[in-house]
Write a structure and sequence with these properties.
With 94 residues, this protein is mostly helical. The protein has four helices and three strands, in the order αβααββα. The chain has a domain of 54 residues: Orthogonal Bundle (Multidrug-efflux Transporter Regulator, Chain: A, Domain 2), CATH 1.10.1660.
Length: 94
């Protein structure tokens, strides 16, 4: 069944149809999650307002998650923010 339809459209109407089709197609494409930002120890210590010694103790105690890449230590920003929020709730800090 090869049905053909000839329609007369204004340029603006055709653009609207194309825009809508593209928008619908893009919403069906899965979006890549944003890349996780990695922070260094000094950045995390400044964020919490503590010394590197205190941060090391928190790492040993498991109070803050960290990741080792070769000999370097990094923190995921989202995990640091979670730890910061839990500290605020627990101790009432800003």
């Amino acid at each position: 069944m090869n049905e053909r339809l000839i329609v007369t459209l204004k340029v603006g109407e055709l653009k609207d149809i194309i825009d809508e089709s593209i928008t619908n197609a893009l919403t069906k494409v899965p979006q890549k999650p944003e890349e996780e930002t990695l922070l260094k120890r000094i950045d995390v210590a400044k964020l919490f307002g503590v010394s590197l010694v205190t941060l090391n103790q928190w790492m040993r105690d498991g109070r803050i998650l960290y990741h080792r890449i070769n000999s370097r230590i990094f923190f995921k920003r989202s995990e640091v923010m979670d730890a910061l929020n839990s500290t605020v709730k627990k101790y009432g800090r800003k």
